[in-house]
């Protein structure tokens, strides 16, 4: 995946490799918090889309607006199914799962907002637990970029990459928006940090005139 020109900005995200969450109840609470946070953001995005589409339709043919709403609800359902399903298999194909996830995110979140999506997913496999946490983090980062990076949607683009480098998987979300000017804040950032800790990962960020890039660096699990 081609790089987006940016200057390093350590204030965008900070995290270190730290031990995972030993307490299973705390781990489950973290996932539930992310689920609730994601549902809140989903309803916000869906509500804005409904208002925009039906306002544009006015007194004209409402069937097109209803059709778009139906397709988007179906897309959100598919996205949530991918994020909530727990595979019985101990490992999951990265290409099969994350390509489907990127398609669902694009259809549910990005396309209705006029944002293009490009994805480059490297073949491999991940333990189910790592796959689940990584998918939640990826969706959070893409949604955050869609909400904040593009005051003007002209030429808006988000690139998603997943590649194996050395002893780690690198999952990157890069946009060509206005560039973050400070650290990620709020509930979403705290959940991201917690999810990263739960899989021994760290977050790296850089921002500049060319946009913002956040990379999840996740060590490859021992066989």
TrEMBL record:
UniProt keyword terms in alphabetical order: ATP-binding, Kinase, Nucleotide-binding, Phosphoprotein, Transferase
Enzyme class: transferase
UniProt xrefs under InterPro entries: HATPase_C_sf (IPR036890), HATPase_dom (IPR003594), Sig_transdc_His_kin_sub2_dim/P (IPR011495)
Gene Ontology MF, one: ATP binding
The protein's name in its UniProt record: histidine kinase
Keyword ATP-binding included in the entry's annotation: yes
Domain of life: Bacteria
Reaction(s) catalysed by this chain's protein: ATP + protein L-histidine = ADP + protein N-phospho-L-histidine
Pfam families: HATPase_c_2, HisKA_2
PANTHER family the UniProt entry points to: HISTIDINE KINASE (PTHR41523:SF7), TWO-COMPONENT SYSTEM SENSOR PROTEIN (PTHR41523)
Domain Histidine kinase/HSP90-like ATPase as annotated: residue spans: 129-222
KW Transcription (keyword) present: no
Enzyme Commission no: 2.7.13.3
């Amino acid at each position: 995946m081609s790089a987006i020109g940016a200057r390093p900005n350590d204030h965008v995200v900070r995290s270190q490799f730290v031990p995972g969450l030993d307490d299973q109840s705390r781990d489950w609470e973290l996932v539930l918090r992310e689920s609730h946070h994601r549902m809140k953001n989903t309803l916000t995005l869906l509500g804005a889309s409904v208002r925009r589409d039906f306002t544009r339709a006015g007194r004209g043919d409402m069937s097109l607006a209803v059709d778009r709403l139906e397709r988007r609800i179906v897309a959100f359902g598919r996205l949530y199914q991918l994020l909530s399903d727990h595979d019985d298999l101990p490992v999951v194909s990265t290409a099969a799962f994350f390509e489907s996830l990127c398609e669902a995110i694009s259809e549910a979140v990005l396309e209705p907002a006029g944002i293009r999506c490009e994805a480059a997913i490297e073949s491999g496999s991940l333990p189910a637990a790592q796959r689940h946490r990584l998918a939640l983090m990826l969706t959070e980062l893409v949604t955050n970029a869609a909400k904040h990076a593009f005051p003007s949607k002209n030429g808006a683009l988000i690139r998603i990459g997943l590649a194996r480098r050395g002893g780690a998987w690198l999952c990157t979300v890069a946009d060509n928006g206005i560039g973050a000017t400070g650290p990620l804040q709020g509930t979403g950032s705290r959940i991201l940090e917690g999810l990263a800790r739960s899989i021994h990962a760290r977050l790296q960020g850089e921002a500049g005139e060319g946009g913002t890039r956040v990379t999840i660096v996740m060590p490859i699990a021992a066989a």
